[in-house]
């Protein structure tokens, strides 16, 4: 797909992390996510993805598959999926069963985005490990191959050897409804780009998480994409980036709302996972912080205040300004889709931001 100069030629979707506003509750944050799902469905967004994060007061969604079920039941058109399931924490068969169930309930509306990041700190990652005997083993390529074959059993033929068929080929994954969820590979590194291109899968880069290497990852994926006859593969590359956006009627208000995001990025760097602060509190706390972070303090990669990269991780402003910047980035990277992540303390401001963006992008 070649992106034209018009907004209507570009698909736009939503990434919801179920942010918890300060003074609210995780239950309310999840209710807000369901309201956003119905809102995004009516506005014309292409898909709605839920992220997986663990042990964070800041983000309420630790189990995307549960939110997917509720959101898909309360919408009629929009595709719903994971952005993503952190596959190293799980057995591939179980993930296949969960998403085959979702696909059977909501045919042709379910996306299965998978990643290999932990979605939390080192302690949470250890607690989520499938095997704690000995050092952690990175078997993601094997997990990915098994997952694809569990979703599309004809792929087991590729894993036969001199001893005969793969033993897992005898497993019947239920419910065995026609078709399967659409598999995506997600990431924020060249590894994910190389893997998605080699496997012939659609690819989404987490640009809002880390703006470094975005062009390189997307360009490599597009140049190196290998078409495949696998039932879940594509014949041409399909690339997207997840990017932060805050739209408001004026630039001043958008900048004001963005203070909450600026603070949460600084807090996460300090391993502080408190809920989303109000803009007022965020501005006060930011003013009291030292201008340069202490490099000795441990941090979560991608969450610290980063120097400006080629493309901004967050696009902030009036609908027209945001639209023009998003279209410029999309043309520059030859993207097929943008996946928009919006965090504000005010749920009403978040809904309004998605409304203004949908109108500006002519969804």
Describe this structure in words.
It contains eleven helices and nine strands. The protein is of the alpha/beta class and 363 residues long. Strand 3 (79-86), helix 3 (92-105) and strand 4 form a beta-alpha-beta unit. The chain starts with 10 loop residues before the first strand and ends with a helix. 44% of the residues are buried.
What is the approximate shape?
A: globular
Helix content: 25-40%
| Ends apart, CA distance between termini | 17 Å
Major sheet: 8 strands, parallel, barrel
Q: Strand-residue fraction?
A: 5-15%
The parts where pLDDT drops under 50 for at least 5 residues are: 1-5, 294-306
Report the radius of gyration as a whole number of Å.
20 Å
Topology-level CATH name of the domain at 8-242 and 334-349: TIM Barrel
Give me the CATH superfamily of the domain at 8-242 and 334-349: Luciferase-like domain
CATH class of the domain at 8-242 and 334-349: Alpha Beta
Order of helices and strands: EHEHEHEHHEHEHEHHEHEH
Calculate the mean pLDDT score and round it: 91
The tally of beta strands, per DSSP, is 9
Helix/strand layout:
Blueprint: E1 11-16, H1 26-43, E2 47-50, H2 64-73, E3 79-86, H3 92-105, E4 110-115, H4 122-128, H5 140-151, E5 182-187, H6 190-199, E6 203-205, H7 214-224, E7 239-247, H8 251-269, H9 279-288, E8 314-317, H10 319-333, E9 337-341, H11 347-360
Parallel strand pairs: 1-2, 1-9, 2-3, 3-4, 4-5, 5-6, 6-7, 7-8, 7-9
Sum this structure up briefly.
With 363 residues, the protein is of the alpha/beta class. Helix content is 39%, strand content 14%. Helix 6 (190-199) links the parallel strand 5 (182-187) and strand 6 (203-205).
């Amino acid at each position: 797909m070649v992106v034209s100069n018009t907004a209507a030629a570009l698909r736009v979707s939503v990434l919801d992390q179920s942010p918890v506003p300060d003074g609210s509750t995780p239950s309310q944050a999840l209710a807000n996510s369901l309201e956003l799902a119905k809102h995004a469905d009516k506005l014309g967004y292409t898909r709605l993805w839920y992220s997986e994060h663990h042990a964070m007061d800041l983000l309420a969604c630790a189990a995307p598959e549960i939110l997917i079920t509720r959101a898909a039941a309360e919408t009629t058109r929009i595709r719903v999926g994971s952005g993503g399931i952190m596959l190293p924490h799980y057995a591939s068969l179980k993930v296949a069963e969960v998403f085959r169930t979702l696909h059977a309930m909501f045919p042709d509306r379910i996306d299965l985005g998978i990643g290999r990041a932990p979605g939390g700190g080192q302690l949470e990652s250890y607690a989520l490990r499938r095997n704690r005997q000995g050092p952690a083993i990175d078997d993601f390529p094997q997990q990915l191959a098994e997952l694809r074959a569990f979703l599309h059993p004809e792929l087991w033929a590729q894993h036969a050897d001199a001893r005969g068929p793969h033993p897992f080929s005898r497993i019947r994954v239920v419910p065995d409804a026609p078709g399967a969820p659409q598999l995506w590979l997600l990431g924020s590194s060249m590894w994910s780009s190389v893997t998605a291109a080699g496997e012939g899968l659609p690819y989404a880069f987490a640009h809002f998480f880390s703006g470094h290497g975005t062009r390189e990852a997307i360009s490599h994926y597009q140049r190196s994409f290998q078409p495949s006859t696998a039932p879940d593969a594509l014949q041409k590359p399909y690339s997207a980036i997840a990017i932060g956006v805050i739209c408001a009627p004026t630039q001043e208000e958008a900048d004001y709302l963005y203070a909450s995001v600026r603070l949460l990025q600084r807090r996460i760097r300090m391993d502080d996972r408190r809920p989303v602060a109000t803009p007022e509190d965020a501005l006060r706390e930011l003013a009291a912080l030292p201008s340069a972070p202490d490099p000795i303090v441990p941090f979560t990669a991608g969450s610290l205040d980063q120097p400006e990269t080629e493309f901004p991780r967050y696009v902030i402003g009036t609908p027209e300004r945001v639209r023009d910047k998003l279209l410029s980035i999309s043309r520059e990277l030859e993207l097929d889709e943008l996946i928009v992540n919006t965090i504000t303390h005010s749920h009403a401001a978040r809904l309004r931001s998605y409304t203004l963006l949908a109108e500006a992008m002519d969804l």
